[in-house]
């Protein structure tokens, strides 16, 4: 066993021992412990746990890779996800906490005075959460397969076992304190390599400042040099490229924003604090802890992309002719990190011209590349490897690489646990307890919650092992589903006291249905003999050029519109519901004013 493998086993093993130890210490003894950690979590602790819950494998592993691939256009993930947190902190979290229920479907069921509304919300929650959890289990498999030398499948099995150990027995109480530990691991794993690489490239220890600094020993800015490198190699300019239309970028950002605010595994965290003010406070703390990673991600992306090109094409780093025969890397002389990542299948080389060199040129390379014998791009780099491989590409110490492995696993497991709790509480509390067995004892409900959690873990593992085509490689669809189904119902439940059960139910069904139809038609889920799947919607991205991942905004508009139309032709919510909504919205002790006199 080499030094890197030994260190990786030590770092990951120590983190697992910590998580399981916390779970044993924080066992859930009641349904309140299991669902909301007893409702007594300190706002700062909840802010850290929320940050870990939020910063999934997508944030840790994929986001910087997406920005590296997309350039400026990748900023929509930063704007969408952080903007969504502001919406959540200001418009949803305090009111939901004041309402005082355990789950999102319970809020919707009580607010819209209907078990049918609660059941529809459970279905929406399950579709969004299951789609999201696939990405987390896939992230666990990617990290394990690369760093622990096991197969992707074995990595998922190990991840399932660890989550089972602390989520089933500890519930939200165990998950909360485990997520605090996971945040410490993942933020260290993300920022330490970034500091090293920023120092190496720019001499600036803070990567946020390094991104805007000059390359060490030169008067050329890092981003200016990166732009030159990628355009010389035939790729789009890094700092200006926008994939697709501006409209698509806008609705994609909005979909991520309102999807963030509607994701049940995040909302449920705000039920764990003692007071309404604590909900808003913990949302603010979560933003602080999230910002540490999110402001580092653009620097990680740019530096990883620069280092990758400099490794594969020597002239990219020196400013020489990138198309010179000797500029590209000889395949047999490739560094060890490339050999290791090739074994995972996430990095592949195809020698299209038979010269034994890695020719990594973009679609705009043109005549110079063809004169150099180029017959198409020969290197495929999966976006998911950019953060994990970054320390190896930059030749950082083995302990840093091992730390990144532990961080990648922590990010995936922390979000997977939160999602699985949201799934199990929806099944045990909102379906079994509230619909099928209303007189169930607390002990019976706690056992049902644990059984639901165990089944959810097995199902999530199966989906990770056999990911359906419509969800593989992206969690953006989960945000679109939450945006189109749950977010409008929650917003109308808080801010429209007249909105009734018929409008809310019709809106959720319409928003979810139109979004899933657009997504599935793109991804080939429907089958119509003799017809291309996308012919059902008029071709790929046929609705004003909007991609399936961005369609949640359209679904949300449909949801709101249908709800308002149905409300107009049915009776508004009963008076006692309207008074309840008023009491949730108005601060305690404040008097409502109708314009003529206070009452």
Detailed description of the structure:
By secondary structure, the chain is an all-alpha fold. It folds into two domains: 3-306 and 393-585, Sodium/glucose cotransporter (Up-down Bundle), CATH 1.20.1730; 311-381, no CATH class. It is 68% helix and 2% strand. The chain has 23 helices and four strands. It has helices at residues 3-25, 31-36, 43-54, 57-70, 75-99, 104-111, 115-147, 152-202, 207-210, 222-232, 246-262, 264-267, 276-312, 314-318, 336-342, 366-371, 386-393, 398-436, 442-465, 476-495, 501-523, 552-568, 575-585, and strands at residues 329-330, 347-349, 357-358, 379-381. Strands 1-3 form a two-stranded antiparallel ribbon. A two-stranded antiparallel sheet has the order 2-4. Helix 3 packs parallel to helix 13 (276-312) and helix 20 packs parallel to helix 22. It is globular, with a radius of gyration of 25 Å. The relative contact order is 0.17. The model is unreliable at 525-532 and 589-599 (pLDDT under 50).
Could you give a short description of this structure?
With 599 residues, the protein is mostly helical. It has helices at 3-25, 31-36, 43-54, 57-70, 75-99, 104-111, 115-147, 152-202, 207-210, 222-232, 246-262, 264-267, 276-312, 314-318, 336-342, 366-371, 386-393, 398-436, 442-465, 476-495, 501-523, 552-568, 575-585, and strands at residues 329-330, 347-349, 357-358, 379-381.
Write the layout of secondary structure elements.
Blueprint: H1 3-25, H2 31-36, H3 43-54, H4 57-70, H5 75-99, H6 104-111, H7 115-147, H8 152-202, H9 207-210, H10 222-232, H11 246-262, H12 264-267, H13 276-312, H14 314-318, E1 329-330, H15 336-342, E2 347-349, E3 357-358, H16 366-371, E4 379-381, H17 386-393, H18 398-436, H19 442-465, H20 476-495, H21 501-523, H22 552-568, H23 575-585
Helix pairs in contact: 1-8, 1-18, 3-8, 3-13, 4-13, 4-18, 5-11, 5-13, 6-7, 7-8, 7-18, 7-19, 7-20, 7-21, 8-13, 8-18, 8-19, 10-13, 11-20, 11-22, 13-17, 17-18, 18-19, 20-21, 20-22, 21-22
């Amino acid at each position: 066993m080499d030094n890197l493998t030994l260190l990786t086993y030590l770092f990951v093993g120590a983190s697992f021992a910590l998580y399981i130890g916390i779970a044993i210490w924080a066992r859930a003894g009641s349904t309140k412990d299991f669902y909301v950690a007893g409702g007594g979590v300190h706002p700062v602790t909840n802010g850290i746990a929320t940050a870990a819950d939020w910063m999934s494998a997508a944030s840790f592993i994929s986001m910087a890779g997406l920005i590296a691939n997309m350039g400026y256009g990748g900023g929509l993930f930063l704007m969408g996800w952080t903007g969504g947190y502001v919406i959540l902190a200001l418009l949803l979290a305090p009111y939901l906490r004041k309402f005082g229920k355990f789950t999102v479907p319970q809020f919707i069921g009580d607010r819209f005075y209907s078990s049918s509304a609660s059941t529809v919300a459970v279905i929406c929650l399950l579709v969004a959460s299951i789609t999201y959890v696939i990405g987390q289990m896939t992230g666990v498999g990617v990290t394990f397969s690369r760093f622990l030398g096991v197969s992707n499948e074995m990595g998922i099995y190990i991840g399932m076992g660890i989550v089972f150990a602390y989520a089933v027995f500890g519930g939200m109480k165990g998950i909360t304190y485990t997520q605090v530990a996971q945040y410490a691991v993942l933020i260290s794993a993300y920022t330490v390599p970034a500091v090293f690489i920023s120092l190496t490239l720019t001499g600036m220890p803070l990567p946020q400042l390094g991104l805007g600094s000059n390359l060490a020993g030169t008067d050329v800015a890092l981003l200016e040099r990166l732009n030159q490198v990628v355009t010389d190699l035939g790729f789009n300019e890094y700092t200006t490229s926008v994939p697709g239309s501006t409209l698509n970028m806008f609705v994609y950002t909005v979909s991520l924003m309102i999807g963030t605010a509607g994701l049940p595994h995040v909302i449920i965290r705000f039920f764990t604090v003692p007071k309404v003010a604590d909900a808003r406070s913990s949302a603010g703390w979560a933003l602080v802890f999230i910002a540490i990673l999110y402001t580092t991600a653009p620097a990680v992306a740019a530096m990883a992309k620069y280092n990758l090109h400099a490794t594969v094409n020597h002239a990219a780093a020196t400013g020489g002719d990138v198309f010179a025969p000797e500029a590209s890397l000889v395949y047999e002389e490739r560094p060890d990190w490339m050999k290791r990542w090739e074994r995972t299948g996430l990095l592949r080389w195809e020698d299209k011209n038979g010269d034994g060199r890695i020719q990594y040129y973009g679609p705009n390379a043109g005549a110079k590349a063809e004169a150099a014998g180029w017959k198409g791009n020969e290197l495929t780099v999966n976006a998911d490897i950019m953060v994990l491989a970054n320390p190896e590409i930059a030749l950082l110490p083995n302990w840093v690489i091992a730390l990144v492995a532990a961080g990648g696993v922590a990010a995936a497991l922390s979000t997977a646990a939160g999602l699985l709790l949201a799934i199990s509480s929806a099944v045990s509390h909102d379906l079994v307890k509230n619909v099928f067995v209303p007189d169930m004892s607390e002990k019976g409900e706690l056992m049902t919650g644990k059984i639901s959690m165990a089944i959810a873990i097995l199902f999530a593992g199966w989906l990770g092992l056999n990911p359906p085509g419509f969800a593989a490689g992206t969690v953006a669809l989960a945000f679109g589903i939450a945006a189109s189904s749950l977010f409008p119902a929650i917003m109308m439940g808080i801010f429209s006291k007249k909105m009734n059960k018929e409008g809310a139910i019709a809106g959720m069904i319409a928003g979810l249905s139109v979004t899933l139809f657009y997504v599935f038609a793109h991804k080939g889920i429907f089958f119509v003999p003799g017809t291309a799947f996308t012919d059902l919607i008029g071709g790929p991205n046929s609705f004003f050029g909007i991609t399936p991942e961005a369609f949640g905004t359209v679904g949300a508009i449909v949801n709101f519109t249908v709800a308002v139309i149905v409300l107009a032709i049915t009776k508004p919510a009963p008076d006692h519901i309207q008074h309840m909504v008023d009491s949730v919205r108005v601060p305690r002790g404040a008097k409502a004013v109708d314009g003529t006199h206070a009452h």
